[in-house]
Amino acid sequence: MYDITNILEPKTINEALEMLSNNPRLKIIAGGTDVLIKLHHGAMEAVELLSIRKIKGLDEIALMEDGTISIGAMANFSEIFRNDTVNQYIPVLAEAAVSMGSPQIRNMATIGGNVCNGAVSADSAPALFALNAILKLESTTGARMVPIEQFYSGPGKVKIESGEILTNFLINKEEYEETTGNYIKFSNRKALDISMLGVAVVCNSNWQRFNDLRIAIGVAGPTPIRCKEAEAYARGKDITEKTIEEIGLYAVKSSHARDSWRGSKSYREHLIEVLTQRAIKEAVKRAGGSKNE
């Protein structure tokens, strides 16, 4: 059923990095919800696995002294959406986490595996993009910090180098302080389906105008994206119905939507416009404000 020739289970990150350095062919497995499916369908053959599940500390979620939120790559989606720090400071990520599959999947799937799989439908990706998350990648030669926007290189492809393990996601205080957010997932079915579109919004406003607005979209193109044109247009604008409508249109321009078996380009563009507007309105509402007519 699974063409696995060997499984290594290190107990420390240093041990794991040494094993990976000695055998670059090892395939890292976290929760296994993506890797095991690929193995089941024959997408991988005669694979050697390096399981990082037993490494203590890789699932920790912590608020550091300088206000940075650190999320271990092995934190599963159930742990994320139930975590007090996540819900208090970055609830947009909690919303993304709870939208992920079934309870059984959320108990196994990890945020690190979700991102490293490189799928454009990864539910965590838009929220992490909107939060300007930084990835900490470790190897035997040291650590490398990579902004998440620079991590994706194409469908199913990420810029993780040979010998590296993703250990943490870091979200700096200035990225979430005095912000509200909203994540909306749209799929063909109401339950347990892969996302047709995911929109995450992080907003800093003074209830009258947008001081800062970040919009990230998943499944619109070959990688998750930030809608930079829409963000630039919104900055400093009064919060009105007209402004929010225009932001939605700019988001469509930024998205470069495409046709796929899950939906046509025109339908995706409609969803981007409508869901972006809806997410912004909810974020403004959560800030205690309302749009001006």
Automatic annotation (TrEMBL):
GO terms for cellular component: xanthine dehydrogenase complex. Its EC number is 1.17.1.5. GO terms for molecular function: FAD binding; nicotinate dehydrogenase activity; xanthine dehydrogenase activity. Transmembrane segments: none annotated. Residues 1-176 form the FAD-binding PCMH-type domain. SUPFAM superfamilies: CO dehydrogenase flavoprotein C-terminal domain-like (SSF55447), FAD-binding/transporter-associated domain-like (SSF56176). InterPro entries: CO_DH_flav_C, CO_DH_flav_C_dom_sf, Diverse_Substr_Oxidored, FAD-bd_PCMH, FAD-bd_PCMH-like_sf, FAD-bd_PCMH_sub1, FAD-bd_PCMH_sub2, Mopterin_DH_FAD-bd. The keyword Flavoprotein applies. Keywords: FAD, Flavoprotein, Oxidoreductase. The keyword Flavoprotein applies. SMART domains: CO_deh_flav_C. It holds the Pfam family CO_deh_flav_C. PROSITE patterns: FAD_PCMH (PS51387). NCBIfam families: PRK09971.1, XdhB_XDHase. PANTHER family: XANTHINE DEHYDROGENASE FAD-BINDING SUBUNIT XDHB-RELATED, XANTHINE DEHYDROGENASE SUBUNIT C-RELATED. This is Nicotinate dehydrogenase FAD-subunit. It comes from Clostridium magnum DSM 2767. The lineage of its organism: Bacteria, Bacillati, Bacillota, Clostridia, Eubacteriales.
